[in-house]
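Anyone have tokens for FAD/NAD(P)-binding domain-containing protein? Sequence:
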Amino acid sequence: MPKPHRGCTFATLVACMTFASAYGAMPTDYLHIDYCVIGAGPGGLQIAYFLQQSQRHYLVFERNNISGSFFVNYPRHRKLISINKRYTGKQNKEFNLRHDWNSLLSHDDNLLYKHFSEDFFPHADTMLHYLNNFTDRFDLKVQYNTTITWIEAEKDPVAWNGHYFFLTDQNDNRYRCSVLLVATGISMPNIPKFPGSEHSEGYETISVDPNDFVGQTVLILGRGNSAFETADNIVGATNFIHMLSRSRVRLAWATHYVGDLRAVNNAMLDTYQLKSLDGLLERDLENIAIIQDSKGKLHLRLRYQYDEIKASENGSSNSTDQRLLYQEIDNFSVREPYDRVIRCLGWKFDFSIFDNVTKPQGGGGHKYPLVKATYESESLPGMFIIGTASHSVDYRKSAGGFIHGFRYTGEHQGWS
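Reply: yep, here.
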């Protein structure tokens, strides 16, 4: 089996046994851990800290070789939008934490984020440095390079909640736990399907070098922080940018919700409102089609046009595309072709690692798993959703999906 992080020995963790239940024979080769935590991001590390302080028997599984690996690549343009207010004029620790959106809770004031970055909007690399220092300082039990690929539950009368959780990693190693804490975040990009969607590029892979967009005309799908972050990066190099989404822009300073568009990213609103070529458009993505011409240019068309022509062509996509290219509407605001179409449509929870019994119900448009007010799964006792993915409880109402919200979750759940 993979070697756990420092301080985590198999002598203290292994408690393997053979047993059977009315539901069939149970696995006999596994490592038993009381508390399994999946993910060594901010949410997983915060829970690990509380479990360690209360001397619980736990292990954190991390698929990469460092803590906080999400921040290796994201945000793509490397500026966090969680504020790092180093000075408030006050000495009260809780008051100061209210204005510190990056620090995890601990008894060591040297691990406040202000000691790791002087920037109001820190560089993402400082978050990586911070999270790995946090892991090392408290010698948290993190097993790296371990991808949990499957989660199932088996009934057993000995278990406190009537069942145990069995986890399988990429090397077919097995783990059993009484309590499962899922801190995997929302890591799956939203990729809608519509005619021509294959011609779009994703935020997760798009170039961050503005020179790659010189003289190009760009369509961005989405209207959140990742979309505006991308637009801000290339606005000085492009011919113009159009941004398409089904709803209007929600500005954080108007809604008071930190997940809405932040002022640090909204420069394109200036160029739009001051009529400097860039534009914002409203249309459900299910109602569009993208056609590529022989020169590689991308044309935006309405879905109903595509469906009508395709029906008349007996389902031939190639013929439909060619006819659509010549059906331009004179006053159609997006009649000019694009060089690039970039998808910036946010993220959702990865449900694929759960079997039918353990799979959480989808909540909030399936972006987040559905959980109780205690952050326990609605469908299965003993499984808790931790960190960003737990935001279905207070979505758009509070900051539970962000570090300065979910860092308090474990403290008040009884893990500390």
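Residues 136 and 281 are 48 Å apart (CA to CA).
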